[in-house]
Amino acid sequence: MEEQQSLTHVRADGSAHMVDVSEKSETTRVARAEAIVRTRGDVVVLLAEGNLPKGDALSVARIAGIMAAKKTPELVPLCHPLPISKVTVDFEPNAADGTIRIEALVKTRGVTGVEMEALTAVSVAALTVFDMIKAVDKAAIIDGIRVLAKSGGKSGDWEAGA
Amino acid sequence: MEEQQSLTHVRADGSAHMVDVSEKSETTRVARAEAIVRTRGDVVVLLAEGNLPKGDALSVARIAGIMAAKKTPELVPLCHPLPISKVTVDFEPNAADGTIRIEALVKTRGVTGVEMEALTAVSVAALTVFDMIKAVDKAAIIDGIRVLAKSGGKSGDWEAGA
Amino acid sequence: MEEQQSLTHVRADGSAHMVDVSEKSETTRVARAEAIVRTRGDVVVLLAEGNLPKGDALSVARIAGIMAAKKTPELVPLCHPLPISKVTVDFEPNAADGTIRIEALVKTRGVTGVEMEALTAVSVAALTVFDMIKAVDKAAIIDGIRVLAKSGGKSGDWEAGA
Amino acid sequence: MEEQQSLTHVRADGSAHMVDVSEKSETTRVARAEAIVRTRGDVVVLLAEGNLPKGDALSVARIAGIMAAKKTPELVPLCHPLPISKVTVDFEPNAADGTIRIEALVKTRGVTGVEMEALTAVSVAALTVFDMIKAVDKAAIIDGIRVLAKSGGKSGDWEAGA
Amino acid sequence: MEEQQSLTHVRADGSAHMVDVSEKSETTRVARAEAIVRTRGDVVVLLAEGNLPKGDALSVARIAGIMAAKKTPELVPLCHPLPISKVTVDFEPNAADGTIRIEALVKTRGVTGVEMEALTAVSVAALTVFDMIKAVDKAAIIDGIRVLAKSGGKSGDWEAGA
Amino acid sequence: MEEQQSLTHVRADGSAHMVDVSEKSETTRVARAEAIVRTRGDVVVLLAEGNLPKGDALSVARIAGIMAAKKTPELVPLCHPLPISKVTVDFEPNAADGTIRIEALVKTRGVTGVEMEALTAVSVAALTVFDMIKAVDKAAIIDGIRVLAKSGGKSGDWEAGA
């Protein structure tokens, strides 16, 4: 059955392994991912629009996302370690919708793609936003964690549908 | 403005800190959280219903989730370290819907709640599922990461609405 | 020789160990530490007084310091792991002097003091400030890393001289 | 304003990011850094001149410094991961002055400089020395953490003034 | 089948979990473990008997073992985090036999035993010894990693047979 | 004395360092290592032959071994960080002998060999097996941790004797 082999991290007998990437060529690879935190409008205002002198709230989540991208191979067991060469994490707070959209971009010169790094960055940034707001909104939800686009590597460029 | 003070991790001037929990009492605390991975039915079958002798696929995600729960204070900058006393991570694959529901339960005897640990467990388990299937479905989405219930501590028990 | 025994991490034959603290009593312990980054006045202005909408520069250093406090037993080989219950990291930029003073406060309910955690917090916050400014001032110096005060524990309270 | 752009880790709006180094060329890069621990002469003797059969005291600090160099991108949020190819950490105890000078050299073949790795090595080695002596000298100070010299990379060689 | 339940980390359906220890009582617990590195007599002499001024070789392995004890819950997926209160790692080089015996003692006040911590300490100390000697003896073997004794906790004291 | 120089991690004065590998050439390198867990036949059956629907027991040890390979430079102080490109961990349970043989293969394109990574993988997989069975067999022993073969690099291929 050909699909069985499609789970690249699983061998023919079903056991997991870290696949061989030693012959893949090193190219510049980029991936973008996003996540949405759904909360209430007043909470979005608290997080993002305070006129406080030191507005650390979203900075904390940004740093958490950037640091998490570097930790991806420690968190996702079969991920290969990669020399990350760029990470950005951005927030789009929308008080009307009560949402905060998070987008990460990760770049490397390496032998595997960086979509797991970008997904890990937005996930941990979203968890950190949740941690900031959980005292005011226990019911917040993290939604729509997905890859937006990736480029570089043999499998070519890919972009998510609208 | 009283709401400003509601972001417990942020001080009056907007700067972040790790709040003082030294006077909180140690009680048994439990939290349950969930996440949904949305993919295709055939991918769910590959992951969960293979008759392979060593079906590691979901085991990898379970272990990743359990280990991530222990790493929560390394990932979420303002989380307090906690002596976790129990973690379970379970999967409910649904081939008809093309979804895998992930639920984690975390327990501690400690001074703060463990909802961040439970959310981190399901998030990293979901990222690991994504990593297993990304070669066959780049468009998979992780949705609905939320707390289901928490108990213990001063703020009392809480359960998510249906 | 009594002084030989004063190096508590070293046994009679000179070999290192992690000393036994299992009989020490758990009390609330606090330590404050500081570090000074010496650079140029214009660099301090860049770091601390920019009217930019998202002034992340010192936030990054604050988060780095808080997270480093939690990593102390991973960095300092003979330190005991401790359940940290509070961390703050603050900055006093002084453009006239070309300095940034960093102060950290760490609190625990535990069996050992937290001066190493407070010192680690200011050291890593200072290294992060250095990393932010190194492109504009390679000659910056981190000075005066020291304990300001500690309280709690059998050895009693202690405060640094002026 | 050109200076605003000089903080390479901060974008035009003030938010932090990990800058793109994917187009920088891989060259051999070296950095040397130092730190001074200021204590009392008798403490320096305890640390460095004991005739004990197993004189682990400074070895512990050396290993801590070497291991910390490898942890730099985990500690300093916007540092890129680098394949470190050499680390040395050396001590110059001076009982007359009551000081211990620590010098680290770090080398890599990579796309960014290694001054942060060398500074992290001396800082953590100094913190470890402090941890060894804190029972006999709470008032010890870590001073003068700075880059001594760096070479390799586009910006050319650099040496600290005397 | 009652034996199935004996694998405490495995639930009735065979899936792994981190078992609940929240109701276990906190007592002082100690474990001792050992490992043997088998190499050649001349290599043991190199490692342990050099008259060099700074004999770091076994110090490196000792520190590695102590630090690894603290990392046990990061390495062994279902281990509970524990506040370690004492660690020692000792070496018995025997040039006649070409062996180095490593013994670790770990102590805690906690709710689970520390045999995994003691075993991890000797294992990583042994791996570090191997790393020191691999250029002169690729064929070295690490043997006999086992618990020597444990005490504390409900299951009572236990000692290995001779 | 030439042998003194054979301990590559130790300098002429006996102090430890991380040796310079910046001039070594990057080649594909492979290492295989093994470990034996000695327990009782009925325990091997419990671990490996249960007809349970989710047989996670050895999966946990496999994942632990794979993740530990990536952590080698964090555990073994003088190891260089390496971009691991493949890891497999396999188990050969033998109920008749009461043993489980563990074999790991690690591959890299890098400047140093990967025998320490392969040894770390089997050691941590073996510790994890021990952790799974310790409630039913405290007297289990981990034996025979050794390199089976290595290839790539200047020193050429090497294979252990039978």
Which key phrases capture this entry?
MoaC_sf (chains A, B, C, D, E, F); Mopterin_CF_biosynth-C_dom (chains A, B, C, D, E, F); homohexamer; 31% helix; Alpha-Beta Plaits; EC 4.6.1.17 (chains A, B, C, D, E, F); 162 residues; five-stranded antiparallel sheet; lyase (chains A, B, C, D, E, F); alpha+beta
Count of the domains of chain A: 1
Strand residues, percent of chain A: 25-35%
The number of helical segments of chain A is 4
Oligomer: homohexamer
Main beta-sheet strand count, sense and barrel state of chain A: 5 strands, antiparallel
- As a percent range, the share of helical residues of chain A equals 25-40%
Query: Rg of chain A from C-alpha positions?
Result: 18 Å
Shape of chain A: elongated
The number of E-state strands of chain A comes to 5
CATH homologous superfamily heading of chain A:
Molybdopterin cofactor biosynthesis C (MoaC) domain
Within the largest sheet of chain A, what's the order of strands? 2-3-1-4-5
* Spans of at least 5 consecutive residues with low confidence of chain A: 1-5
CATH architectural arrangement of chain A: 2-Layer Sandwich
Topology of chain A as a string of helices (H) and strands (E): HEHHEEHEE
What does this structure look like?
The structure is a homohexamer of 162-residue chains. The first copy, chain A, is α+β, with helices and mostly antiparallel strands and 162 residues long. Chain A has four helices and five strands. Chain A has one domain (25-150): Molybdopterin cofactor biosynthesis C (MoaC) domain (Alpha-Beta Plaits), CATH 3.30.70. A five-stranded antiparallel beta sheet of chain A has the order 2-3-1-4-5. In chain A, a hairpin with a 4-residue loop joins strand 2 and strand 3 (99-110). Chain A is elongated. At the A-B interface, helix 1, helix 2, helix 3, helix 4 and strand 4 of A face helix 1, helix 2, helix 3, helix 4 and strand 4 of B.
